[in-house]
Amino acid sequence: MSNFLFNHKTGKEEKIICITKPIRKEKRRNQYTIEFKFGSDIDVSKLKQVIQINQQIPAYIPLSLTFRLESDIFIPIQFDPNLQLGALSIDPISFNYRIVRYDKHHNNYIFHFEPIDRPFTPHQVVKTTLEKYHPSLGELFEAYHFNLLKKEKITVSTEEEIKEYENSIRHSFAVYIQKKQKGIITTLMKSINTQYLQLMGINDQIFQDYINQTGLLPWCLSTDNNQFQNLITGMFQGAHQQINYTIQALNYNGQQFEVKITPKVFHIYNQEDDSYLQFMFFEQEYNSQIMTQNQIDQNMIEYFNQRSKIVKMDFIENDYTKRCKYRKL
Description:
The protein is α+β, with helices and mostly antiparallel strands. It has one domain. It is built from 10 helices and 11 strands. The strands form 3 sheets. Strands 3-4-6-5-10-9-8 form a 7-stranded antiparallel β-sheet, sandwiched between helices. The chain has a two-stranded antiparallel sheet with strand order 1-11. It has a two-stranded antiparallel ribbon with strand order 2-7. A hairpin with a 2-residue loop joins strand 5 and strand 6. Helix 3 packs antiparallel against helix 4. The chain starts with a helix and ends in a 7-residue tail after the last strand. The relative contact order is 0.18.
């Protein structure tokens, strides 16, 4: 069985067990409750014994900067740079999903998601917005959007075919596992490997601490306006037609370099609920000498020295969605 399909099924089964398992928790007295009778004889000196407790709340994403589409297309719209990991962008999947669990299995990091509840954006709104960058982007988006939702163009694969492709990957990669059902696509999982971390110029310690502090995923693709059109064009054409394309990547140190992307898509049909499980692979080839292990070690020192800038922030936006998560050790 495909490793990613196995992880998906295992996570699904564990979720069912957690939902059905009864949990009993004894009621406990609130240790910060101060009891006194109401009236003129209140002894307010007891209030002075209360210790103020400060709790750091995870990061939020302003809703005004996001799109949610039935096709689940992720469009990189940059927001507060103080939330970024070094010079890296923020993975567009973080706009519409929260991480509910993540695991490390051998060489792979696996993230399980649940969607942030918000209305779907009319596709015409997104098309009009993209046309402000370049007229052709709107047409490319619309074609990709509707083609993703078509069932008649889906070619069903076997688990063995997916496993064979997984075993053939020799470079950095990311894979999205999505569910197609009743005209809506939902992302269930994303996985990357350790080579992907090297591409970004970070290591395991930086990666896991950043996720714990912010609930966000870093992204290695530049969202600079000069690169935006090439990035979107590659995403829309390359992913849909499964053709190789080259884009500019960005690492923790702000270095830009070329990455060759090889997309590959598989589908498995589930007759029980008339749905499709979609596997979208993106394999990346790049010059691994751009980022040495010594530089990654230096980045870790810098990251933890600057860590307070990520977690101690004042947010002024009015419209937020709380990012909740848990981690299985």
